[in-house]
Amino acid sequence: MTDQELLDRYYTDRDNAWLGILLQRYTLLLLGVCMKYIKEEEEAKDCVQHIFVKVISELGKYRVTFFKSWIYTIARNHCLMKLRDQHGHKAELSDNMLAAWDEEPGKSSHQEKEQQLRLMGESLDELGKEQKLCVILFYLEKRSYQDIAASTGFSLMQVKSYIQNGKRNLRLLMEKKARENAQ
Length: 183
Prior knowledge:
The protein is mainly alpha-helical. 80% of the residues lie in helices and 0% in strands. The longest helix is centred in the C-terminal third of the chain and has 27 residues, at 156-182. The protein is flat, with a radius of gyration of 19 Å.
């Protein structure tokens, strides 16, 4: 049975047995991905278990069409977030945003970058739920428009609009908070 057939059966009757077969197929792949990032076998095995839990919870919310690439993305993002948490760093919304910040004169200190990331996190929480979801999926999880549309149920035009408006609103909120903090 193909991955898609197993997924279709799972979506039809919500029987976790189909999902169990599917996850069993990918256990070694997931362990390999986790080992690539985490480097320690026991921690990598723990990550695989966390990924399984995330997959089970997320599949109930979204209709996934390309399971292998989707589960790989879930695994990679989980490992990257774990590494960031271990090192005390927050995820960056966009490489370009921080690069532009770095190019401004006098903005190179570590403390100011941390302030910028804090403002970004606070501002992200103030976005509407659709914009926030699409911005996070696009910039932090590096998912495509099509993948976001498939997993959220939004149309492709809605996804593009939420991302564009969310990015603009995020920038405006960050600028406003920066001005307030400067006073």
